[in-house]
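Lay summary. Proteins are chains of building blocks that fold into shapes, and those shapes determine what they do. In this project we predict the shape from the chain. Here is one chain we studied, written as its sequence of building blocks.
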Amino acid sequence: MMRAAEFTPGGARIRWVEARGEGTPLVYVHGLGAASTVYHAHIAAHPALRGRRSLFVDLPGHGISDRPADFAYTLEDHADALAAVLRAAGAEGAELVAHSMGGAVAVVLAHRWPGLVSRLVLTEANLDPDPPVTAGSSGIAAYSEETFVRGGGFEETLERVGGEWASTMRLADPAALHRSATCLVRGTRPTMRAMLLGLDIPRTYLQGELSGELPGRDELVAAGVMVETVPGAGHVVMFDNPDAFVAAVAGPEFAASAGGR
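And here is the predicted shape, written in a compact code that computers can read:
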């Protein structure tokens, strides 16, 4: 079923699709220019996760959620909107499964609202400001908002990113997309990495093997973050190696039982 919660004083609504189930809720959060059901529905349907309560949230300006023109779309704004979802859904203490920009939002949420999140599973989440120029967010933020929204930048970006990403990016509001990308490039203070290092909840970070070595890996491991390199996967781990992704989401108990077969 589709549900919604207000996230601005003017009544703009963030929406999610929810599958009923048991246990600690799993809340799936997409990346920049994406949509949660597209990237995660097949993961939730896996036998290891079927039967879990699952929420597929579209961040403000994306997918089926509202896109208010006067919203800043900072990482903190997105995190507060996601907090409104957890409260409205009665899903406090959820496990967040979050990709790319969504991972940064999830980290900020866990930092700002202790108690709302019991576990993080982050897939190639943005942890540092000023990502490489090859990142999608950097390419979008290189435009001014005016040029991106009304001067052809949005159309150029859809051409550049290719079919799969463009299929969901074209559903996002161009101004919301540009502001989200710009704020993602700017990052937070303290940084998302510093926030993640300081959390005392279970944290898993998935890095695709094809994406190269994760910067600062040793520091994350020393702080108790479980860092896993996923074989044969790039940035979109849930498509490239869904079985490994499911195993990470399901947790150590599933991995142990699967290894014993």
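What the prediction tells us: The beta strands are 2-6, 13-19, 22-29, 52-58, 94-99, 117-123, 203-208, 226-230.
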